[in-house]
Design brief:
The protein is an alpha+beta fold and 367 residues long. The chain folds into 3 domains: 176 residues, DnaJ domain (Helix Hairpins); 66 residues, HSP40/DNAj peptide-binding domain (Sandwich), CATH 2.60.260.20; 74 residues, Sandwich (HSP40/DNAj peptide-binding domain), CATH 2.60.260.20. The chain has 10 helices and 13 strands. A hairpin with a 6-residue loop joins strand 2 and strand 3. Keywords: Chaperone. This is J domain-containing protein. GO terms for molecular function: protein-folding chaperone binding; unfolded protein binding. It comes from Gomphillus americanus.
């Protein structure tokens, strides 16, 4: 039976938990209440301080043992004898008595009962604890030290120091030298890059602009320490003249993983167009004319990729498969602003499927 449970309650754990469970509980609580994650909640700073101070005592097995037996006030007094008349003033109430099993010698710089053989010392200094009393460290320093200690790993949790550093930045406090030192022995984990096709119409590739898409990713919930799904809207810039296969890279927008958020690469995939076929920077299209038109002449009105109407005519006669090239009517050249490819019109001659005897006779006479 422990003397009191307020420090355990602060971390939402049972007094019977193992040391590793205390670390996990602190990590979860510190992420939830860190001031950098709760800038609009002034009460969070006090809660962060509370859970950090609870961790500072409970994470040390010796401090935890003294707290379990005699409570927080006893710890803050630096192990001084309880006031006369209290429950702990009687025989067996002094944890520093030489004959008590598990007892310690000098505590917090206070002269202990003679006969003790082991020295135990909380941090000392000025403050509410008085001479030799225990003083809590700064909450930011406690958190920074905890984060640096994760370089050695913690069962099943992995080393996500880089991700937490990026979330809280300077809020970790403490020396950055310790962080750099740990990285010499353990190289940072690189995040993966995920590739996705981005279907785009030919008109969009001609005009350019922003294309909005929605992605679903998994992010780390600071409150629970678990991954949760999240929808994110992206505006991807399409520059005029982009070709199929063009890659557009984004960093840190994908799923959360050990090294941070995944990078994503979007690969332009050109949608099939009902009229035009793109060949490099040129646009090709096919028009049909009749055999009569091919022999006697023709004129057609067609629409360009930018929506303009132009008149197209052919020579007399027009050979099947003939091509007519219109300069600067194709796609923009992405690497040469202001320049465009050509539009190429291919002529397909539609031959009749049958001829009457009279038609054959007349054609034979003419040709």
């Amino acid at each position: 039976m422990v003397f009191e449970t307020k420090l355990y309650d602060a971390l939402s754990i049972s007094p019977t938990v193992q040391q590793d469970d205390i670390k996990k509980a602190y990590r979860k609580a510190a992420l939830k209440w860190h001031p950098d994650k709760n800038k609009d909640n002034p009460a969070a700073a006090e809660k962060f301080k509370e859970v950090s101070q609870a961790y500072e005592i409970l994470s040390d097995p010796e401090k935890r043992s003294i707290y379990d037996q005699y409570g927080l006030e006893f710890v803050l007094r630096g192990g001084q004898m309880p006031p006369p008349g209290s429950e702990d003033a009687g025989a067996g109430g002094n944890p520093f008595a030489s004959g008590m099993p598990g007892g310690f010698g000098n505590f917090g710089g206070m002269g202990g009962v003679p006969g003790g053989t082991r020295s135990f010392h909380f941090s000392t200094g000025g403050g509410g604890g008085g001479r030799g009393g225990f003083n809590f460290s700064d909450a930011n320093d406690i958190f920074a030290q905890f984060m640096r200690s994760q370089g050695g790993g913690m069962g099943g949790m992995g080393n996500d120091e880089d991700d937490l550093m990026s979330q809280f930045g300077a809020g970790l406090g403490g020396s950055r030298a310790g962080h750099r030192s740990s990285k010499r022995s353990q190289p940072p984990v690189e995040v993966t890059t995920v590739e996705r096709n981005l279907p785009v119409t030919l008109e969009q590739l001609y005009k350019g602009g922003n294309k909005k898409i929605k992605i679903q990713r998994k992010t780390l919930d600071a409150g629970t320490g678990k991954l949760k799904p999240e929808d994110k809207i992206l505006e991807i810039e399409i520059k005029p003249g982009y070709k199929a296969g063009t890659k557009i890279n984004y960093k840190g927008i994908g799923d959360h993983e050990e090294g941070g958020q995944q990078n994503m690469t979007f690969i332009i995939a050109e949608k099939e167009h009902p009229v035009f076929k793109r060949v490099g920077d040129d646009l090709r299209r096919v028009i049909e004319i009749s055999l009569k038109e091919a022999l006697t002449g023709w004129r057609k009105t067609i629409e360009t990729i930018d929506g303009r109407q132009i008149s197209v005519t052919g020579g007399v006669p027009t050979q099947p498969g003939a091509e007519i090239r219109y300069p600067d009517q194709g796609m923009p050249k992405s690497k040469k602003p202001g320049e465009r490819g050509d539009m190429i019109v291919e002529v397909k001659v539609r031959f009749p499927t049958s001829l009457t005897t009279e038609q054959r006779t007349k054609l034979s006479e003419i040709l």
